[in-house]
Amino acid sequence: MKDLLFKLCDASAVSGNENKISELLTDSLSKYGETHVYNDGSVICELGNKNAEKTILFDAHIDQIGLIVTYITEEGFIKVAACGGVDKRLLPGSVVTVHGKKDLKGVVCNIPPHLSKSLDKEEFVDIEDTYIDLGLKKEEVKNNVNIGDSISFYGKQNELLNERVSSPCLDDRSGAAVLIKLAEKLHSSNNIKSRVFILLSSQEETGSLGAKISSYRCNPDEAIAVDVSFAKQPNLTCDKYSCLGKGGMIGIAPILSNQVTNTLINIAKNKNIPYQLEVMGGKSGTNADVIATTKSGVKCGLVSVPQRYMHSTVEVVDIKDLNNIVELLFEYVLAGGAKD
Fold first, then answer.
1. Residues 130-172: tens digit of each pLDDT
2. Which of 18, 46, 204, 327 does the annotation list as catalytic?
3. CA-closest candidate to residue 335, choices 268, 278, 250
4. In the chain, at which end, N or C, are there fewer CB atoms within 10 A of the end residue's CB?
5. Are 339 and 284 within 8 A, CB to CB?
6. How far apart are CA 332 and CA 223, in angstroms?
């Protein structure tokens, strides 16, 4: 699982520019079922019984937050806009990769504290006023970079202790890794009675375009989205956050199906699979929200990987949680999906 996860995290896929990872995911899934990549960058793999009465869809998004080039100054600096929920507090001094005609490393410009007015030290520059320095003159920048090119945040994959890992874009390469491993287990089983789609969808961070399009294409009877959610960390004392290493977070929310949710909980209890609950008072903030409203409605559930430091280059997850989610979803399919 760890090796697969790090391999997925190595591939850049800022929203709207998922081509590289789509190719990688197609190669990974094609050995388990009929797999196609579509124009929006989403990848769909079909497994199980094509003639079954029930169709189950599993979704995880493959895109990551990033930036987009909006302007090149006379001095050769690049101005940007955000793609997704970028935290402007983390930008100054960070390392980025500009995906132009070739990949170029750059740094986000920041003002040294010696030159900042004391009253401004707690203020953060708006993303639209942020600049990137490639170390090149304007002519060199323009020869390699176009307006509209995507920019990803640079960071390394690191093994921590206690089966925990750190990397950029674990949101939601964690979910993608879970579903690839699920496809592997389903392919090896002779007891799959349902038709199953694995959807690795594009552009969740900028509006869930891939999930909207592809869930319509798959036309499922029920679906489960696999994403990340907030784990406990320093300076976050709210009781609703879950813990690393204690299992996936089964979502409970008005927009989610009670049948799917209760089936997941009962399976986890009966099979002694660690799990936690995540309660939301409305929508889930994930692809489950758009899949649930596909066509005349889809019974939808949500299982999330607990994660620290979301939308940073040092996101942290526990490999045990990913493996437990694989087991939970596999048993869900073996059980034939949601029960009344």
1. 999 999 999 999 999 999 999 999 999 999 999 999 999 999 9
2. 204
3. 268
4. C
5. no
6. 11
Burial class (CB in 10 A: 0-12, 13-18, 19+), 110: middle
CA triple 201-207-212, angle to 5 deg:
50
Contacts of 148 (CB under 8 A, 6+ apart): 68, 69
CA 134 and chain centroid, separation: 28
β partners of residue 305:
228
**Three-state secondary structure string covering the chain:** CHHHHHHHHHCCCECCCCHHHHHHHHHHHCCCCEEEECCCCCEEEEEECCCCCCEEEEEEECCECEEEEEEECCCCCEEEEEECCCCHHHCCCCEEEEECCCEEEEEECCCCHHHCCHHHCCCCCCHHHCEEECCCCHHHHHHHCCCCCEEEECCCCEECCCCEEEECCHHHHHHHHHHHHHHHHHHHCCCCCCEEEEEEECCHHHCCHHHHHHHHHHCCCEEEEEEEEEECECCECCCCCECCCCCEEEEECCCCCHHHHHHHHHHHHHCCCCEEEEECCCCCCCCHHHHCCCCCCCEEEEEEEEEECCCCCCEEEEHHHHHHHHHHHHHHHHCCCCCC
204 catalytic residue (yes or no):
yes
pTM of the model: 0.94
Amino acid at 92: P
| CA quadruple 197, 202, 203, 209: dihedral, nearest 10 | -50
Q: How far apart are CA 164 and CA 166, in angstroms?
A: 7
End-to-end CA distance of the chain: 33
- Please provide residue 40's backbone torsions phi and psi, each rounded to the nearest 5 degrees: -80, -5
pLDDT digits (tens, 9 = 90+) for 36-60: 999 899 999 999 999 899 999 999 9
